[in-house]
Amino acid sequence: xxxxxxxxxxxxxxxxxxxxxxxxxxxxxxxxxxxxxxxxxxxxxxxxxxxxxxxxxxxxxxxxxxxxxxxxxxxxxxxxxxxxxxxxxxxxxxxxxxxxxxxxxxxxxxxxxxxxxxxxxxxxxxxxxxxxxxxxxxxxxxxxxxxxxxxxxxxxxxxxxxxxxxxxx
Length: 169
Description:
It is a single chain. By secondary structure, this protein is of the alpha/beta class. The protein folds into 2 domains: 88 residues, no CATH class; 62 residues, Antifreeze-like/N-acetylneuraminic acid synthase C-terminal domain (Type Iii Antifreeze Protein Isoform Hplc 12, Alpha-Beta Complex), CATH 3.90.1210.10. The relative contact order is 0.10.
């Protein structure tokens, strides 16, 4: 017996819901998808945005030619628009990453980051007097300012040094 690798929920029979896409993936351990028997593009696009990896649509060259599925079949231009919309939704999901993208490298010098504002000896605490958020952005993000206040440096640090986690204990 073969393994089921995908399971679709049918929008014409069951109302589409975000929970159903996730439920199918978790319950059956399969790639979730949508079998959509409507002329709409919004539901399959939303399904992709919620994790659906397969979209089934009926397609015809011309609805006017008739046929049992023609009433809910997309014509080529509509299919092309659906492909565009779902690709856009998929790309909008992006990938999880921490930190700036490679394309933002040229902007890094324009960002603020944490720097040592006056010489600090090994063992001394970081304080508002010796820790500042300034440009360029080669040190730790200013979001760590409060976390770093009161922490002790592990070595002598010169004024103007970009702060890194290696400097604090």
